[in-house]
Amino acid sequence: MPKLSPRDIRRKIQGIKNTRRITNAMKVVSAAKLRRAQELIYASRPYSERLYEVLKSLATHIDPQAHPLFEVREERACDLVVITADRGLAGAFNSNLIRQAEELVKNKQEKGIKVSLVLIGRKGAQYFGKRNYNILKAYDEVFRKEINFSVVKETGELLRSRYANKETDAVYLINNEMITRVSYKPVVRTFLPFERLEGEGDYGVYEFEVERELFVSKLIDLYLNYQLYRAMLESNASEHFARMVAMDNATRNADELVKTWTLIFNKARQEAITSELIDIVNAVEAMK
Amino acid sequence: MIKVEIVTPQGLHFSREVNSVNIPTAEGEIGVLEKHMYLMTMLKPGLVYFDGKPENGIAVTYGFVDVTPEKVIILAEEAYNIGDIDPGKEKELFDQAMKKLATAQTMEEIEEWERIRERARTLLELVERFGGV
Question: Which CATH class is domain A6-26+246-287?
Answer without folding.
Answer: mainly alpha
